[in-house]
Write a structure and sequence with these properties.
The complex is a heterodimer of chains A (272) and B (349). Chain A is mainly alpha-helical and 272 residues long. Chain A is 85% helix and 0% strand. The mean pLDDT of chain A is 92. In chain B, β4 (54-59) and β5 form a beta hairpin. In chain B, α2 (89-99) packs across α3, α2 packs parallel to α4 and α3 (104-118) packs across α4 (133-145). The model of chain B has no long low-confidence stretch (mean pLDDT 93). Classes of the chains: A mainly alpha (272), B alpha+beta (349).
C-alpha cells in the first residue's frame, strides 16, 4: 500500500524527480573533483602532505592569505556599508550605473583587474608615487595583495549588505524616529541590528572571495607569496607533487574556518 | 492644533497638491480616501519624513516645516505595525522612553501602566513575530502612547485586522481618545471607520483634499460627484433645474422629475440621494413632500444584513430582509421608490 502510494506520488512528481537526478550531477561533479584530490593526497601520499604542513613557507603563505583577505574585507565593510545603505534606501539619477560599476569586478577577467591595478598603483605612476610618499607601496607588498583582494571581493559584500538593508522596512526606522531617535540612533539601534546577519554573511563571502584570488594578486604582488601564488609557483617548478599538498591544506583550513563561521551564525540566529 | 497651509510635494509619479486643513486640539480627525490617494504621504509629511517643496506645516501655532521627526512629539502607528522584530514587547514599548533618557525606574512604571491599559501585560516578554495582528497593533499603539505625544498619527491602523479584532480595536481607539483627549489624525479608506470615529473628515482623492467637513456633511452633502461615489451615495443623477419656488426646486432628469429642497435656482446639476433614504412601496405614496418614482427591479444583492435593490429608473435603494418579504420584492417587479425633498443634495455640474 505504502509502496504504491510512494510510486504514484513519484509519478505525479516526475518533473521534480528528473530535475533532481540531473541537478545532482552538478553537485557530484564538484564533490568528486575536490574529494579526489583530498583523498589522493591524504591516503596515497600522506607524507607529502605532512611535509607541507611542516613547511614554514607554506604555513606563512596560508596565514598571509587569510590575513590579507581579512584586511580587504575590513575595508570593504567600512566603505561598503554606507554605500549599501544609500543604494538600499534611495533612488537617484544614475543609480543603475552605480550598481553596474559595483558589479564590474565580478565580470572582468581577474588578470585584467590585476593589470589595471598594477598600471595605476606601480611605484612609477602618479598615484603610486603619492602613496609611496605616504609610506605605502603596493608593488610586491601586503598592500598590493590587499588592494587586489579588495577589488574583486568588495562587490560580494556590498551586494549582500544592500539586500540586507532592503529587507528592512523603512517604516521601522521612521517609527524609531518618531519615538525620539536621531537618524544615527535609528540606524545604529534598529537598522544595523536587523541587518547584521546579512552584513556578516556578506563579509564571510567577501573574505572567501579574497582568499581564492590569484589572477589579480599575482600581477601586482608576486611576493610575498599568498597561498594560491605559492601553489602556482610550486606547480610550475615541481608539478602536482609539490603543489597538491598545499592545495589540500588550504582547502582544509578554509573548510574548517567557514564551518566555524557558519555554525556561529546559526547559533546566533537560534538565540534570536 | 495642526495646520497644513498649501502643502505641495512631488514623489516621482505622485504628488500632493495644495493640501490645506486644520485640526483642532483634541480633535479626532480622519483622512478618508481610496488606496493610492496620498493619505500616508500626508501623514508622513506631518510626521516630518518629507519636507514639502511648497507650503508650511504648523504644530501648536509654531512653524514646524523643517523640524526633524524626533522633535515633533508625535506618535505614529502603521498598518503593518512596524514593531522592532529584535526586541520584546516590553523593549519595544520602552524604546521611546530610553531615547528620552528617562530613569530606568520610571521607564518600568510607565511601560507597565500602558501595557495594563491596552491589555497586553501578559505578552511582555514575547517577540513580535509570535503575536497575532491584533496583539501587534496593541503593542504598536502602546509604544506610540507611552511617550505621551501631542499628536497621534494612525495610518490605516485597523485595515490589516480581521473584522472582529478590527471592531474591538476601533472601540479601543475611541476609548483612548476619550480618556486622553489626544489630537489624533487617522488615515483610512474605510467609511465605517470614518463614521464611527471622526469629529471631522478630510476626503482626499489623487493627492488633493476635496472636502473637509463633519462626517454627516461629507456623507450627506458631498461637494462633488467623485466624493459622492466614494462615500457610497449610489444615486447620482444628472438633471436640470426647471424652476425654484420658495426653495423647492423642480429638476428634470429626462425620465422623471424630482422635487428637491435647494437654494440653487437654475442650471445643470448633480442630484445625490443616499440609498438608505429611499423607501420602496407597491403603491404610490400620497404626500406633497415626497418624490415617488415607478421602476422595475433589475437586481437584488445581499450586503451583510441589508439588501441593495437596483431599479430600471436608475435608482438604488437599501432595504431590510423584512421589507423584501413584506413587499414580495423580486427581479422584474414594479415598485415605487419614494424619498423626501429634504433628503436630496444637489451640486452644480
Amino acid at each position: 500500500m505504502s509502496i504504491t502510494k510512494t510510486l504514484s506520488g513519484a509519478k505525479r512528481q516526475r518533473l521534480s524527480l528528473i530535475f533532481l537526478v540531473v541537478g545532482s550531477l552538478l553537485i557530484l561533479f564538484t564533490l568528486f573533483v575536490l574529494f579526489n584530490m583530498v583523498f589522493r593526497q591524504l591516503v596515497l601520499d600522506l607524507n607529502g602532505f605532512l611535509e607541507a604542513v611542516n613547511d614554514p613557507l607554506v604555513i606563512s603563505s596560508i596565514l598571509l592569505t587569510l590575513y590579507a583577505s581579512f584586511l580587504a574585507t575590513l575595508i570593504a565593510v567600512v566603505l561598503g556599508t554606507p554605500l549599501a545603505y544609500v543604494l538600499a534606501r534611495h533612488d537617484f539619477f544614475g543609480k543603475n550605473v552605480v550598481e553596474s560599476v559595483i558589479d564590474v569586478p565580478v565580470i572582468i577577467p581577474h588578470s585584467v583587474a590585476g593589470i589595471a591595478l598594477y598600471a595605476l598603483l606601480q611605484s612609477r605612476s602618479a598615484v603610486g608615487t603619492a602613496f609611496y610618499n605616504l609610506g605605502i607601496v603596493f608593488e610586491d607588498s601586503l598592500w598590493g595583495i590587499v588592494v587586489a583582494m579588495l577589488f574583486v571581493s568588495a562587490p560580494f559584500y556590498v551586494n549582500a549588505a544592500r539586500e540586507g538593508f532592503q529587507s528592512i522596512n523603512p517604516r521601522i526606522e521612521r517609527v524609531a524616529r518618531t519615538l525620539g531617535a536621531s537618524q544615527w540612533q535609528a540606524f545604529y539601534k534598529v537598522t544595523l541590528h536587523l541587518a547584521i546577519r546579512h552584513l556578516f554573511s556578506g563579509a564571510v563571502m567577501a573574505w572567501a572571495r579574497g582568499i581564492s584570488e590569484f589572477g589579480a594578486v599575482i600581477m601586482i604582488a608576486f611576493y610575498p607569496m599568498i597561498a594560491p601564488v605559492l601553489i602556482y609557483y610550486r606547480f610550475t617548478t615541481q608539478g602536482l607533487k609539490g603543489s597538491q599538498p598545499i592545495a589540500v591544506l588550504l582547502i582544509l583550513v578554509c573548510f574548517v574556518v567557514f564551518m566555524v563561521l557558519r555554525l556561529s551564525t546559526k547559533y546566533w540566529e537560534k538565540r534570536k | 492644533m495642526i495646520t497644513l497651509d498649501n502643502v505641495s510635494h512631488e514623489w516621482g509619479e505622485f504628488s500632493l497638491k495644495n493640501v490645506s486643513f486644520s485640526v483642532d486640539k483634541g480633535e479626532y480627525f480622519v483622512i478618508l480616501g481610496p488606496t493610492g490617494a496620498g493619505k500616508t504621504l500626508i501623514l508622513e509629511t506631518i510626521a516630518g519624513f518629507h519636507i514639502p517643496s511648497e507650503g508650511r506645516i504648523f504644530l501648536d501655532g509654531r512653524d514646524a516645516t523643517d523640524l526633524p521627526p524626533e522633535k515633533r512629539k508625535i506618535g505614529l502607528v502603521y498598518q503593518d505595525y512596524s514593531l522592532f522584530p529584535h526586541m520584546t514587547v516590553e523593549e519595544n514599548i520602552a524604546f521611546g522612553l530610553k531615547m528620552r533618557k528617562i530613569p530606568k525606574k520610571e521607564v518600568e512604571t510607565k511601560v507597565q501602566s500602558i501595557m495594563d491599559s491596552v491589555g497586553i501585560t501578559h505578552l511582555k516578554t514575547r517577540f513580535p513575530s509570535t503575536l497575532s495582528g491584533g496583539e501587534q497593533q496593541r503593542v504598536a499603539l502602546a509604544r506610540a502612547l507611552v511617550i505621551d505625544p501631542d499628536i497621534l498619527l494612525l495610518d490605516e491602523p485597523l485595515s490589516a485586522l480581521d473584522p472582529r479584532t478590527r471592531e474591538s480595536l476601533r472601540e479601543e481607539l475611541k476609548r483612548i481618545h476619550k480618556v486622553r483627549g489626544m489630537t489624533t489624525i487617522h488615515v483610512t479608506h474605510d467609511q465605517i471607520e470614518a463614521l464611527a470615529l471622526a469629529d471631522q473628515i478630510a476626503v482626499i482623492l489623487k493627492g488633493e483634499v476635496i472636502q473637509v467637513d463633519t462626517s454627516s456633511k461629507v456623507f450627506n452633502e458631498p461637494v462633488n460627484e467623485r466624493i459622492a461615489i466614494f462615500v457610497g451615495m449610489e444615486n447620482v443623477i444628472k438633471g436640470k433645474i426647471v424652476s425654484n419656488e420658495d426653495g423647492v426646486a423642480l429638476v428634470e432628469t429626462g425620465k422623471y422629475q424630482i422635487h428637491a429642497l435647494s437654494k440653487l435656482i437654475e442650471g445643470e446639476v448633480n442630484v445625490f440621494i443616499r440609498p438608505e433614504n429611499i423607501i420602496l412601496s407597491e403603491a404610490r405614496l400620497k404626500s406633497s413632500a415626497r418624490n415617488s418614482i415607478r421602476g422595475k427591479i433589475t437586481d437584488i444583492t445581499q450586503l451583510g444584513a441589508i439588501f441593495r435593490i437596483r431599479m430600471d429608473s436608475g435608482l438604488t435603494a437599501l432595504v431590510t430582509k423584512q421589507a423584501i418579504e413584506d413587499l414580495g420584492l423580486a427581479i422584474g417587479k414594479a415598485v415605487y421608490a419614494s424619498f423626501k425633498a429634504t433628503a436630496i443634495h444637489m451640486t452644480r455640474r
